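We treat protein structure as text, and this decision shapes the records that our systems exchange. Because each token names a local backbone shape, the row as a whole describes the fold. For reference, a complete record is included directly beneath this paragraph.
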Amino acid sequence: MHTPTPRHQIRARHTDTTVTVYQAYAPRLGLPAARAGRFPADWKRGRMTWIKPSFLWAMYRCGWALKADQETVLAVEITREGFEWALRNACLSHYDRSVHADRDAWRRELAAAPARVQWDPERDLRLRPLEHRSLQLGLAGEASTRYADTWITAIDDVTPTARRVHDLVRRGDLAGARELLPRERPYPRVPGLLDRLAPAEAARH
């Protein structure tokens, strides 16, 4: 019997110590980052950066690496400790009356938080929206600095994979495309980790 995917669930490629997230950059930033295993000096730590555990949502965002300044897709492996720190210190990117006392309280929390979470419809191979959601994690300030300087364990250029999957999808070979996708599994449930980030889902468990 098929079990429906929970509406709010982190799905990612992960090990006991790391989790892989995706970002797309212009080649002038992405290629040096992949070569060095860290972001170059001109990567701006002061601005918000969004990391995505879902490969297909990243493909939706960058248009299979065809959008301007998003032609290089990076698989960034970071520590689970860092990933969970960001979640524990994150605020929802939108007001939720089941979480926040009022909109002003949410705005104050958002302004103070070094990370923010939003849940967007997951995508299928044709990049069509699905019923369940995919986590997007925005990092700023302290979180962005920790990400760039402490959490990263490896950076790989997966642009060739993105282009190969896209080519197979365009040719209608969805089975072949699916075989090339990263093996993303539900992230282990950590008590309290999503209580204020997916409260309706957390209340069911």
